[in-house]
From TrEMBL:
Keyword Transmembrane assigned: yes
Organism from which the protein derives: Pavo cristatus (Indian peafowl)
Protein name: N-acetylglucosaminylphosphatidylinositol deacetylase
Molecular function via GO: N-acetylglucosaminylphosphatidylinositol deacetylase activity
EC number(s) recorded for this UniProt protein: 3.5.1.89
Gene3D superfamilies: LmbE-like (3.40.50.10320)
Amino acid sequence: MAAGPWGWGLAVLLLLLLAVLRCAARRLRSRSAAKSAALSRDGDVSALLVTAHPDDEVMFFAPTLLCLGRAGARLAVLCCSAGDYYNQGEIRKKELEQSCCLLGVPASSVTVVDHRDLPDSPSVEWDTQLLASFVLKHIEANNINLVVTFDAGGVSGHANHISLYTALRYSVLPASLGASLWCYTVNVMFVCKQLITARAKGTAFIVPPAGALLVFLSLRPLLLFSFLISEQRHILTPSAV
């Protein structure tokens, strides 16, 4: 059945949206490179990515790690659980190391906290003091001066993600007064949070299936997630506490 004028109009609108997103992605790459270069000029950057589960590093922070790596920063990852929700913790730890290797983080700089009081669970809020103790210890032992983690909403609303932000915001940073420590959180822009299906009697709409659109975007992660350093919100510095 041929598409009506509304169907063609929607298809054209989607194409225009994708064109705009591609332009935005190029601008973000350029701004990210400039920001990373500035960080490197300010001195040696020793960056720590703090995540909740194996796969967070690639799902949410891959562009940031790659950007910092190109700028010459020393990279480390502290994953605060083994991701054992489905009893696959050992497998996921190995996958984490492999993923980090591809992102420029050597296995020797990847640490997994496998603590019984920090379970992988979307409904469990972690003990922020316990979390802070692990993070602070890692910062001090490795001379970290830049930390990246989730925002106040945990990106996806996951309780474990939110606990990391809370621990850094209210425990780690106040304890780091006087130190040269910068903390950044992801600033998430979901390009397609929801696809609305329009239906009208007697009219067939030619609309790309949601799966196809998301696959297209996933091939260009900068379009789906703006997790570049230049787009990350600076939540607090020691001097601002």
